[in-house]
Amino acid sequence: KALKIKTNELVELFEDVCQGKRLNYYPPCPQPEHVIGVNAHSDMGALTILLQANEIEGLQIRKDGEWIPLKPLPNAFVINIGDMLEVIDITLITT
């Protein structure tokens, strides 16, 4: 509802799409300055569901060209809109 996309439009778009998953786990490091993590990227799928375990900071979003850290919320998931839904949104707005 928040995306203002009709349910049947989403169903049609994702009927034949395969799903994927990737798990990243970073154990605590005594020297955090040596941790590499995941490089800056955009999520190419439709949705990304993230859990920041142990309230450890590190997740950032880019808004207006600036990187903004996301403070972890206990027992909460972060839901990212991926590139695919962004393209769909632009297409629906322009048509």
UniProtKB/TrEMBL annotation:
It comes from the Eukaryota. Residues 14-95 form the Fe2OG dioxygenase domain. Keywords: Iron, Metal-binding, Vitamin C. Gene3D superfamilies: B-lactam Antibiotic, Isopenicillin N Synthase, Chain. One of its GO terms (molecular function) is L-ascorbic acid binding. InterPro entries: IPNS-like_FE2OG_OXY, IPNS-like_sf, Oxoglu/Fe-dep_dioxygenase_dom, Plant_2OG-oxidoreductases. This is Protein SRG1-like. It comes from Trifolium medium.
